[in-house]
Amino acid sequence: MTLDKQIHNARIVSSVAATLISLACGTNYVYSAWAPQFADRLLLSATESNLIGLFGNLGMYSAGVPVGMLVDSRGPRPAVILGSVLLGVGYWPLHTAYNAGHGSVSLMCFFSYLTGLGGCLAFAAAVKTSALNWPHHRGTATAFPLAAFGLSAFFFALVGSIFFPGDPGRFLELLAAGTFGITFIGFFFLRVYPHTHYHAVASGDDSMTDSQQLHRTTSHDSKNSRASRGPRVEPGMSTNTTNQEGTASNPPVIAGSLDSSAVDVEAAVAPKRTPEEVEEAEIDETSSLMSRSTSSSSLPGDVLVQSSVDLDRSHRVDIRGWKLLKNWEFWQLFSIMAILSGIGLMTINNIGNDVTALWKHWDDSIDDKTLVLRQQLHVSILSIGSFAGRLLSGVGSDFLVKIVGASRVWCLVIAAAIFSVAQVCALNITNPHMLGFVSGFSGLGYGFLFGVFPSIVAESFGIHGLSQNWGFMTLSPVLSSNVFNLFYGAIFDAHSIVEPDGSRDCTEGLECYRAAYLVTLGACAVGVVVTLLVIWVQRRDQLKENSKDRAED
């Protein structure tokens, strides 16, 4: 087997590892499969139970910017091992608290936060590794970990229902051991395998910088380069340096995780390339995941952008930092994300309570084991719906942009419409056998929202600052989910009866939570209005830009 084939196979193994790691990172969405029984055993109110779930979401969404900086500066692998530890450390105390039947709410919130943070760390590393290993096939390479993340809740709910039916304690043990084990084992196979190395020929003429040719290094040259460079650099780390003029420049060679002789052989046997091809390969390995700008960053948002994004505009526009916070369109999109993601997270975190309320009202003889299985079923439906929504949003937004010539933001109108259907179903369904419409439409709308939103951010504010802009945007679910989930908990508690032993029970069926969905239905209407306003503003600005270009011509 040739060395090229070996490296190709190694990259495939790394991509499989990244996909499996991602499968362990979306377990916050399986919270409803065990939360109601957890609350019953520890005598928690619905509000306290929602608070624990909220801290898991907080860990996942609030740490986007610092996690991206860590992955950029230290490479993907340290983030995976740290995420693995945090997932295990987060879930195991929750498992022991359930078995003991008591625990501090504040401590359980903290450990729930660790599960979200651990998932965020490992997922960011997995996606970046896939993107770096396949620089010319990033869309396909990153689709696998993204899909696995969306199916994480379905996977664990399915395994739990097969091996530990109706046993939340063993299910929490599965989450602790499974998330830690999968990410820990995946760590040993997750590697960035550098492509062929090149170096620039020194030139004393500054005017020749832009057209400077690149040449392949020899084995002797690469050894000298490594010796003079000092410590080895973890593949995938940010390798930008600053020259005497203060401009960013990429180093000539990226240190790899392969043996040095193997890398030299790869360079020796690789076919000759034109200077243009060489330049493209060099930029792919050392620049940002999404652009050829020297400002590199690699938050998950970098690789969530569909390939059909309006690269012309996204490369011309560069709004970030304080300019972003002063931009009116940013706050409009921030509001849309807050409203729609908050609506989705309320159902994701509370579908288990919906199931419990409807089934206990429908059949008061139902046992806890059957309830747990029903909850896991709806978590699976949510997960599959989210996965389908992510795929459909990509196809749908491409159709809107390429065929219809419409704004990609129309996908957010569709997402809001899907959420509206879910809220109407939740307000009217009293038969628990029909509750699948609520979980299905909620998952579909949530996937649709997150499948298209990063591309909208890139087209609106530029691709060069996408990572930090997307990091700011993902703070919105943290704020809105707090409001919607705590409101749901307050409504559910108001209709619950406190038993003499301290346990809570609501047998009123739909009335246990109906008021919460009335509020979210109104929020959907607000989301549609704000989304249409953004479309109108974008259309107006585009017409102004087009007329300005015609005037200049």
Automatic annotation (TrEMBL):
Low complexity bias: start-end ranges: 286-297
> Gene3D superfamilies in the record, alphabetically?
MFS general substrate transporter like domains
Q: Name one GO molecular function term.
A: transmembrane transporter activity
Region (Disordered): which ranges? 204-255, 267-297
The keyword Transmembrane is annotated on this UniProt entry: yes
Pfam families xref list? MFS_1 (PF07690)
What SUPFAM superfamilies does its record include? MFS general substrate transporter (SSF103473)
Q: What is this protein called?
A: Major facilitator superfamily transporter
User: Which species expresses this protein natively?
Assistant: Neoarthrinium moseri
